Each structure stands twice: as structure tokens, then as C-alpha cells.
Amino acid sequence: MSTGRGRGVFALRFDVDSVTCLERGIPALLRLGERHGVRFTFFVNMGRSFSWRHTVARTLRSRRAGATGEDVGTPRANKLPAGAKLGRGGVLKTVLMNPRLGWRYRPTLDRLFEEGHELGLHGGSNHATWQYALDELGEDGLKRHVRPSFAAFRDRYGQPSGFASPGFRYNEAVLDLMDHEGFEYASDMDGERPFRPPRPGRGRRYRHFQVPVNVIGEDSVPMIEQGLALGRSDARIVRDSVERIRERRFALMYGHPYVEGVQWRLLDAILTELSGDYETVTVAEYLRLWKETAGHG
Question: pTM of the full predicted structure?
Fold first, then answer.
């Protein structure tokens, strides 16, 4: 694939980490991709969404901090609450059933793969463990956490090109793992354009690229979710998103199927606005096109 001179490059990345993503969001995004003749990138958490251990630990820490007068923080106004994103049924299934997503919803993932969407990995065996206790795992624990999901994914869909950490949480062990397991890229770090991250204190760089999300709301909240949480009109959410995309030649936007898939009409309007001057591609294609433009091909 090549993009015409002067035409922008736009990629949509979705992190798949809930039953609502797979039951409601992805079917709508499949229809949307077919409608526009485009393909998206889905980073899939193959394991479980919820951890009682870490939920209880976070609740107890919050209560202790509140009892001693410490600032425990307030819910972010630009972020939708979990119940609004998952729905009542999604919350109940997550807490009571907490299935291994990559196994329970294999037919849905198979359909994504068969229809040409890019599949990558999103964390390891438990999304909440990675997001809230990554540093507690240690290097060996991280490998044990990732190995079952990685093996199951690779056996069915081949070696994934890309990886995205839950909550954008990464450390040096994660960066080492990306190189060791042969990932072409990850999408965890801040920035405007792809780059190979430096190795701390070693004067060298990692082999994999980081492909930053550069169309994003405050505090790493997706643009569309932020607009919905702030009560903005559909027209303004679309306008704000399109303006941010058009500020850059290479634009990468992210979200979750439980928001952007369920609210697919917003994405439909964004893709329609961009269709004349942007090529919508997967993140892997985005990276390849950027390398060609930057002389790294």
C-alpha cells in the first residue's frame, strides 16, 4: 500500500479488554470497517479483565488514605465510569464470570483476523494485574504473566507485530520483553511520531519501535470518551477529533470497542470527514508508511 502525495495517514487502535468490547463493540466496528472499506488494529487481552485481589487492595488503600486525611483523588470528569462503558450486563459478567477473553470469544477474534483487521496483544493473563501491579511482577513474573496469552495467540494467528500495555503501563522489563519476543512495535510511550526507545544507560536503542498515540484527550483518555464524559454534542466531538487529526500528517487515535464501537456513529462521521484526504490503515501499515517517508524503509 502507498499513500498519495499530500495525503495523510490515519490509524485507529482499539484496546480489547472486556466482554462488552467483544459482545457489542467489535460487531459494530466490523460493520463500520466494511462500510468504509478500511481495516483497524485491535490489541486483544487474551486473559481476564478483573482481579478481586487488586480491586480489594486498591479499595483498602483508598480507605486508609481517606481515614488519615490524604488526598485519594476524585473521579476524572473527562472519563466515563465503568458502569457507563460496560453496561449493567457487562459489569455482572465481568465480576461474576470473568472469562478468559481470548478463549471465550475466539469466534469473534477469528472473524477479525479473517476479515483482514490487525490483531496484536494487550497485556498478559489479567488486565487488572498488569495495569495496577506491573512492578510487583518482576522480570520472571512478567514472563509467566505473558507466556500463556502469547502462546495461544501465536498458535492461532501467528506472530503478532504489535503490543499495547494496559493503562499505558510499562517498565524496562516490558521493553526488554518486546525485543526478546520479536515484536516489531509497541504503542505505550508518549510522542508525536514513531521512534526506537533508548536503553537506559547503555548508549543503545531497542530493536522495536514505539508508535505513540498522538490524537488523545487529557490524562490518556480517548478523544471520543472524553467528549462524551464532558457532555459535548456529537457534532463537537466529531469536529474536535477531525481537527486534531488534521493537525498532523501521521495521526494515530485510540479507544475501546465498548465506547467507540457502541458509539459507532461518531467514528462513522469522522471517517466520512477524512475520506478525501486521509488513508485509513492499520498501525502496522502506519509504521511502514512512516518508515518510508522518514527514510527508514
Answer: 0.92
